[in-house]
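[DERIVE STRUCTURE TOKENS]
===
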Amino acid sequence: MKFYQVDSFTDELFKGNPAGVCLIDGDSWLDDSLMQNISMENNLSETAFVLNKGGKHHIRWFTPTVEVPLCGHATLASAHILLESDGEITFHAGEMQLSVTRTGDMLTLDFPIDKIWQLELNDMLDCFDFKPIEVWRGTEEYILVAETEEQVENAICNLPKAAKIDLAGIIITAPSSQSGIDYVSRYFAPKIGIDEDPVTGSNQCLLAPLWQGKLQKSEFTALQVSKRGGKLWVKIEGGRVKIGGHAVTYLNGELKIGT
């Protein structure tokens, strides 16, 4: 089985978010347990498995410990491998259709927007060394809004506490103090095997509507201020979120499973 590792949301090797991409040779999925073990062995935030069946590309994503319902950077990585020139590819993920467009060296994801709503401030998400000024949630994540970019950059997460929350993970975000950047974020999801995700495309499905309400605009340049870091170009359009970024192939090879 062909295997690739791609650094997503960056144009530099060793930056952005590394994702595994496995192109399944055949017309049926591997056993779930095997895909989970491959993802555990890769030890990346996510590994995408792509199956070409009936002329359609189907995709699934696994962290080292669980399958997840949506992943941005591994979808971007998969499109980077499969789209060799300008054009568009559509991935089928259950009932979702996720298109990715390549224009030059820019790849743009077309993802569903997530519904978010504000919560009362309380201590249930006391996992960080700063006090948020707002708490929001979406389908799978909480969002903690900080006052300053520095609070987000310097935040320390109590990972054992964060692993006990009832949702998949916690996004922390703040307005950016940098010229040309609208907002910054970081993402912690130890509950699903990701202590900190370097750059998270799918989180823009929540962050875009949050910052649309605050900044009264629909196009953003976002920065995920993890150690590796990554830049995303985000736009709300027609009830969807467009998420743009670059990608660089780190390695390609062949997985040999069994005898």
Q: What stands out?
A: The chain is about 15% helix and 45% strand. The radius of gyration is 18 Å. The chain has a mean pLDDT of 96.
